[in-house]
Amino acid sequence: MADLTKLMKGPTEAEPVQEQPKLSREEYAAQKKAEREELWTRIDALTADVFKDGSSLRGFLDFTAQCSPERIENLLLFHSDAPEATWLKTFDEWKQAGRSVRGGEVGYTALIGQDYTREDGTAASGYYVGKKFDVSQTRGRQPDRAPVYAADELVTALFTNSPVRLAVSEAVPEGIQAQYAAQNRTIYVRNNMDAQTTFLAIAREQAAASYDIHDGRFSRAAYSAQSYCAAYVAAKKYGLDVRSFSFDRVCQMCSGLEPQEQRRFLSDVKQAAYTVERTVRRGLNEMELSATPEPACSVEVHASMEQTERPARTKKASQPQRE
Predict the structure, then answer these.
(1) Residue 9, pLDDT score
(2) Among 144, 147, 270, 316, which residue's Cβ finds the most Cβ atoms within 10 Å?
(3) Handedness of CA 141, 142, 143, 148 (dihedral sign)
């Protein structure tokens, strides 16, 4: 009898599949703890890299301006892993937003916040290590490019929606473009500066004002570097010329700090920059809503034109009044 096994392609016997050993609850917890510790070690290294020199800090601040709001640890990870990213969400968050992640796309490691209940029944917040995807990895029309605004429009937006009082004053000290006074919660601005300088000065002082918790202990000098960096992020966000900024002194100041303290500095910068950006965005929205329509686009004008263009009706003879 012929040996039929010679006609078979591939192995004649199925190779046994080795099953992964199941981890106990304790082993699983230990594995996840090791993953978190490894990730935090990497985050510490990335933090140190940001303060390596002025160019490195500038690059991170550029990414902060480019990317959607994130916790500082995620900005550090994304700056390294996805430098072109602009808007990141988890798989489920994109689904809730009406978009789907394309097949085969690989997400970027991130710390993702979550709420949970402790064993005693109290609510708590924490995080887990997961993946986020950039909008460029999703199906659907990509977001439009952000509109470009002139510097004077941005200045108007700051004045329109400033969270603290703005006052034009010639009494500002020589060499100072603007200054936040905590005692009366007012930013005093020098008059007759060019629009770009005015925006940068007000943005810096609004950032400084955001650190004032009104307890009487606010120190403007303690937040000078953070305010300077936050103004840079806001200006970069709206496309202004930021070539005059230099970050070498900021790096020297922060180089001796522990990684956690360096991240606290970056987080302060980020939060202040977000505050200034929201102020500008709301001001621009108010300006757009209050804009007067052009006459050619006015509904009322069109209506009146239609009335005037209609052929005149024949006037009926007036009826005699009763005596």
Answers:
(1) 55
(2) 270
(3) negative
Q: Residue holding tokens 């991240």?
A: 263
What pLDDT is recorded for position 303? Answer: 46
276-281 LR contacts (CB < 8 Å, sep 24+): 276/203, 276/206, 276/207, 276/210, 276/230, 276/231, 276/234, 277/233, 277/234, 277/237, 279/157, 279/158, 279/161, 279/162, 279/163, 279/206, 280/154, 280/157, 280/158, 280/161, 280/234, 280/238, 281/157
pLDDT at 115: 86
The answer to whether 209 touches 158, Cβ cutoff 8 Å, is no
Report residues of the chain scoring pLDDT below 70: 1-20, 291-323
Q: How far apart are CA 41 and CA 260, in angstroms?
A: 11
Digit-coded pLDDT (tens) for 56-99: 999 999 999 999 999 999 999 999 999 999 999 999 999 999 99
Evaluate whether 234 touches 277 at the Cβ level (below 8 Å). Answer: yes
CA distances from 245 to 3, 225, 233, 248, 250 (A): 81, 12, 11, 10, 11
Four-point Cα dihedral 235, 241, 242, 244, nearest 10: -140
Which stretches within the chain are classed as H helix?
Answer: 25-50, 54-66, 72-81, 91-96, 151-160, 195-210, 224-237, 248-254, 259-290, 299-309
Q: What is the DSSP letter of 101?
A: B
DSSP-derived letter for residue 98 is T
Say what the pLDDT of residue 319 is: 41
Smallest Cα–Cα separation from 67: which of 49, 43, 91, 84?
A: 84
Rounded to whole angstroms, how far apart are CA atoms 140 and 111?
A: 26
**Are the CB atoms for 157 and 237 separated by under 8 Å?**
no
Per-residue tokens: 147: 């509109």
- CB distance 263 to 73 below 8 Å: yes
Q: Residue 138 has what DSSP assignment?
A: B
Beta-ladder partners of 126? 114
**What is the separation of C-alpha 206 from the centre of its chain, rounded to a whole number of angstroms?**
17
| The pLDDT of residue 315 | 44
